[in-house]
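Hey, resending since the last one bounced:
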Amino acid sequence: MFYIVRRLISGLALMAATVLCTFTFNSAQAKGFEDSMAERTRACTACHGDRGRAGPDGYYPRLAGKPAGYLYNQLKNFAEGRRHYGLMTRLVDPLTDDYLREIAQYFSDLKLPYSAPAQTASRMAPALLARGQQLALRGDAGRQLPACIQCHGERLAGLQPHVPGLLGLPLDYLSAQLGAWQTHQRQALAPDCMAQLVARMDSSDLIAVATWLSIQSAPADSSPAATLTLRAGSPLQARCGSAPELKGAP
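The structure tokens again:
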């Protein structure tokens, strides 16, 4: 029964997206279609928000300003079955690698301000926030967990060309993605460093770090870092097949 319901929901979502895309395309034709990436990516921004700022429901993440290599890898992950969302798979399946790179570069080049976090610390348990801050900024050597900043940059704004920023993302999305890695619904090229890391975390750790990240404001300069700076005494970052710029200890 669950499988049938899931297929029904997937089918309805695809139908709704198709209707929306058709309406958008017909509207663009009526106004005079402009052959630009802004027009061609309307199927993306229908869910991910105007110019890829993020969807309003908390589950469609921001695309604007993310490293182009990261965005391209995610498109390939959907196309090749490492990430699972039927609508995305159907959208990217007929597209060439060169065009996927063009889409990724287009959104990466959009430098747009971030909105303020939807939630504040006043609504969160202090112990939960303290644990989340520890994992994000210092890690947990006892569990061989590097801090988030060891891979995602000192400002948590990402690292060129393949590591995304973690700020400006809603709690629902962060929790869902960490959970997806833990249940193997989300994967990356081997060695899959995120899968290895979340396997060492319990559910309270996942909630804590997702909660702390979700209430942090993005820095004024939210551009991904060009190089990685390691704090003295911090554990080295993990090896990642999808991000060769991360050269952690074996």
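DSSP finds eleven helices and no strands in the chain.

Sorry for the duplicate.
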